[in-house]
Prior knowledge:
heterotrimer, A: Uridine Diphospho-n-acetylenolpyruvylglucosamine Reductase, domain 3, 14 strands, C: 794 residues, Aldehyde Oxidoreductase, domain 4, 3 domains, oxidoreductase (chain C)
Amino acid sequence: MKPPPFDYHRPATLGEALDVLAEAGPGGKVLAGGQSLIPLLNMRLAAPARVVDVNRVPGLDGIEAGPSGVRVGALARHAAVERSPGAAAAQPLLRQALRLVAHPVIRNRGTVVGSLVHADPAAEMPAVLALLGGAVRLASLDGEREVPAAEFFTGPMESAARPGELAVSAFFPALPARSGTAFHEVARRHGDYAVAGVAAAVTLDDDLRISAARVACVSVGPVPVVADVTAVCGPRPAASVAWDAVAAAVRDLVEPEGDIHATADYRRHLTGVLAVRALRDAASAAHGEES
Amino acid sequence: MNETHHRVTLTVNGVVREATVPGRRLLSDCLRHDLGLTGTHVGCEHGVCGACTVLLDGEPVRSCLTFAVTVDGQEITTVEGLAQGGALSPVQRAFTECHALQCGFCTPGFLCTVTAFLRDNPAPSEEEALEAVAGNLCRCTGYQNILKAVHRAAEIQAAEIQAAELQAEEGGA
Amino acid sequence: MTTRLFGEPVQRREDPRLITGRGRYLDDLGAGALAAAFVRSPHAHARILDVDVSDALDVDGLVAIYTWEDLPGALAEPLPLLIPHPALTHGRTAYPLAREIVRHVGEPVVMVVARDRYLAEDACALIRVGYEVLKPVVGLEEAAGGAHLVHDDVPGNIGAHLVQEVPGPGGETAREAVDAAPHRLEFRLDVERSACTPLEGKGVYARWDADDASLRVYSSTQTSTSVRMAIAAKLGLPLPKVEVVAPDVGGGFGVKIVHPWPEEILVPWAARLLNRELKWTEDRREHFVSSSHERGQVQHVRVGFDDDGRLLGLEVEILHDHGAYTPYGIIVPIITSTQLLGPYKVGAYRVEFSSVYTNTVQVTPYRGAGRPQGVFCMERTMDKIAAYLGRDRTEVRAANFVQPDEFPYDQGLTFQDGRPLIYDSGDYPEALRMLKELIGWDSFPEEKARAAAEGRRIGIGVGCYVEGTGVGPYEGGHVQITSDGRVHVSTGLTSQGQGHETVFAQIAATELGVPIERVSVVTGDTRRFGYAVGTFASRAAVMSGNAIALACRKVREKALRIAAEALEADPRDLEITDGMVHVAGAPSASIPLATVAVLSNPLRYAFDEEAKRATQFAGPASDDRPPVAEGEEPGLEGRDYYSPVRSTFAAGMHAAIVETDPDTAEIRILRYAVVHDCGRLINPMIVEGQIHGGVAQGVGGALYEKMVYDEHGQLLNASFMDFLMPYATEIPRIETAHLETPSPLNPLGIKGAGEAGVIPVSAVLAAAIEDAEGIPIDRMPISPSDLHTLRRSR
């Protein structure tokens, strides 16, 4: 299991990187953390003509946290984002989700933006971006464009990033006051891709009733499946929500497929269970924020 | 079909080493076959087993999921570099004391992972220790003694630090 | 200082090199050797039409490409059928490189040699093999239906069919006994495929010495002596011109006892042909699709029993999935069908198995070797009887135990070594008592009720097994004390992490009365010891351990004889302590073993100060005796063999408490307890480590690991991403207790321990999940998704 040959480029600036990517076209592949790309190369499931290693491009490893949210640069490792107090404060869901991404050693090297571009529907970070309505910033010789999550994930392992484009950062918006988040998943082994998983965000109104509730589900469709369950949940305090109805609503929205690890029926069932667990935790986190 | 080769300089276990490798050369192969450091083992080459874990600028990474060219100029510690001045490290000593290895193939990956973990978290809880080793596969030990060894290594490390501090105090007095 | 080391938790002598990166595994050897890689079949069943290598020829660094047509003489013949058996009427083995037909995905078709592995893989990717795809035979029952054939000349895909039958006490057949029994049950059980998956795959490195016309081969094998004979035979080389060394081996668990693997003869052949060092290191994907798997069986059970749950008759029919080939014979189903009996007296017994070919990777022993399936069958049977009668599950078991005063106990069957299945010793009631105490069996119902009140589901399960260990035919040991006082021990069998260097040194140090630091042990190197069988069937400690003890006793006797003469004492009055031979109770009258070694070898030439003492003018010697007396040999060394009449029988009992999540169907093991009896313990720390590892593999096999083939015969999970070997987070804490009933069959009183841990785990966890859920668990492994499906269909 050795990678096939490719031309290796290690641009020193963003401009240089975009030049090489433009030249490479569809045969170009960006290497950042490599934790998704290199396994594919080692198994010879991918054979790019050129690999553009952006690890030396300055200015891409930023983690900028502010009241509006967190902007994560292309070279920010999972571990760095997970440990960032600013990121955790601005958007707690990031840390909640990152703790579920593979294992700590993989997180030392893998990047958040890389996992978005990889667009694995079983992965946590795409679901987080989708749930929060974040966006990915793509740069090319033609300039930059900001693609919202809803348009970024186009299919399993497929994103809106075009040949010649480099995902330079992603933005994870903060939530309004009195909001809470949670991420629950079931994986076969600790650290595996989830059999099913649900990220939830809940916002409470002044009377601590649920005023907004959304979930994003992994491993149950070609892209993260986002569902707004505000109407089923509220406006009621979490304690009096008809959770069975919420679970049923989520189950109805997803269209999972069966594979060697789980049947479609189990995934659907599990998504309902995990949605309720995540929403309840998110609601109590929102309460916690209140107090 | 001749591949372009790149010259890389790595500081491995404190020694500056050079190699000329194609872009696709995995760091694991570079260490093992270009630099002759065969202590780092390769168990799956897709990042799941953890046998190839080395420290890159002090942080554990999978050397099978890293190209040698990417880490040009950086510092790497392998299992061969864990013993300082001929003395086994606390983690190495704990692994042998606790019978935390059998065939020994996965062991270098565990040793590197645990070394970095205890540096950052010298007194881990049971849960933290479990999480720390949970990305490395072992087929022989059933992990019982590996977990024991993590805690034992923490004890040895703490005792050594304490002894060094005492010595420093005495030296200062 | 004491030299009594047998039974002590001595720290491992392998560790210093292994924890510092100085181990030498196969791929650590042969820097600069050429690399081999293989083009393997992408189809489960196909006819090879043509092989086009033209594109590959452009690869820089390509050295050679070989197909079956290139293989000369015996190399072109099918690989050996290692263990023939009269019931294996249609044994089939593969060619080293496929000839005409491929029968599983992963079968080697083309061998490529290049400057390094990257380039060899590049060339493989450019070789185009044309195939005519044939109908694949996948699935045990489909295969047994025989609609399509794996081998054209094997009707019904049945490679072997074997019936063993033991009448009941009144001479009744099992059928009669079951039919006449007060109670009867009939059911079906399924066990799916798994595999050994050692962290290090296989590998072969060969060096041809053209000047000497000799071959040295390193292989990551469980049997270097037999690999050596296979290479000599296949390559037509004189045996003394071939040496095989097993270096440090990164785990085996059975897969590396199979030999010669195609690569084990192809790599040496090509190394000689090219006159270049050549190495092949198996990668993970290759290991999944071209090594071996095990476990897949379907069992049909009929059992008859009385009101107390005592077995009166048992009939078992087994369909055993053998994959595409049978190089290791029918050892696995033989073991299943005999070891199924466990610690029980079953009345009349009839077992019948059919070994079935499928277009999948071949099946050969994996740690436990058929026992996990057999124990699953018997223990599920016990639980079903208990449920039917409304009795405690341990009571039903106890009612059927062979009793301590009934040993040796003859089960009336023929075991895997062709010898009668006679248990040597054991104390099953005591083991069960210990286990119940350890896990808290009797208080569990209250615990379960408390949990239920909190909305939690927990369950408890138990499983018992007997394991035939230490099978023959023999192993040997050689012990030499050199004039520096060092003790060099060698034995032919190999090591894959069991700590042989430590335990064999403990035995030698204890037998010889020397400090363990002076003892060194070499295993698996045919240069040091040429006669051996191999490491499998929990046999190394029993076989080589006893052989080494016997060899040490010979050396000791000789040392005492020589020392007695030097000390002018009676050898019967002498003892050896800390490397000194001395008169018992008079330590001043002593002579070091080093000096005894000098005296044992009459010399003409003095090469150092010590040696002077043994030269011809050094001292008084009897003029009327030859320097080497009749019947003596020079040197302080000895060789002996241990060849038992039959196997020893270790035993154990496990219990587990599990919790199942009512909503997600996740299964968590809360406690796992083991009582284990492998006779006398040489090193309790190492035995415990063996149990831990076995249990972890058992948990893998019960809850996580299975080989999933689709209808085309494609293995869908040929990676560590999808073949779910447990991490530390999946393995519970394992609580152990030891019982020691020594074996009367060997001088050390020991039984094997290598495989034990894995054997009953599926049975135990199935029982515990069944107890928690109230749903019969008749198929393993079981995933949360499977459990969810079972809940739905209830």
